[in-house]
Design brief:
The chain is an alpha+beta fold. It is about 30% helix and about 20% strand. The chain is built from 4 helices and 9 strands. The strands form 3 sheets. It has a 5-stranded mixed sheet with strand order 1-2-3-7-8. A two-stranded antiparallel ribbon has the order 4-9. The N and C termini lie far apart (about 35 Å).
């Protein structure tokens, strides 16, 4: 039987406990990938904050470095990413709908959300300023294709580049809606 790097929970840990571990693992995987690419990355040692990492991006090629507060999110099994927090994960999860603590991320919380596709380990770099404008609390990874492994986002963290990328993303989302 072929072994895959993307296999999960082969020891069958309790589902709630495993969800918390998977989130921690993905934070470390994201940090490792970004470090392999040459970015400076710092892990947040404070649990429960609205960001997991600090990633040093660039204003442009050879430009000034900018620290970004980064939230790492694991894609849902249906291959979407949620842009909300305040919902407790892990073994002691309480299911109350709607959660009284739930909130959608804004630029007050973090600067970028990096979603990890749990099936492929691809990374989706999602500027939080985009999320603020979206009505939805989640998006399918298929609608975020222009953000997939798009390291240019971290190399060109400036208004001009991000505005152009946002326009491209809106066009992509409209095309997908038309096809459906």
């Amino acid at each position: 039987m072929e072994k895959k790097i993307t296999e999960t929970n082969i020891v069958r840990i309790d589902k709630g406990k495993f969800a918390a571990r998977l989130g921690d693992a993905h934070q470390l995987i994201v940090a490792g990938i970004l470090m392999r690419l040459g970015f400076y990355v710092s892990l947040s040692l404070i649990k429960g904050e609205s960001f997991d990492l600090v990633v040093f991006a660039y204003e442009g090629p050879g430009g000034k470095q900018i620290p970004l507060r980064c939230q790492v999110k694991t894609s849902e099994p249906n291959r979407s990413v949620r842009f909300v927090a305040g919902i407790r994960g892990g073994i002691d999860r309480e299911y109350k709908h709607p959660s009284p603590k739930e909130y959608k991320y804004t630029t007050q919380h973090n600067d970028i959300i990096i979603a990890v596709d749990r099936d492929t380990l691809d990374l989706y770099l999602i500027p939080t300023r985009f999320v603020e404008k979206w009505k939805e609390k989640s998006k399918a990874l298929s609608k975020l294709e222009p953000l997939k492994n798009n390291w240019e986002i971290l190399l060109n963290w400036n208004d001009e580049f991000l505005s152009q990328l946002e326009k491209e993303l809106k066009i992509k989302i409209k095309r997908i809606k038309v096809k459906i």
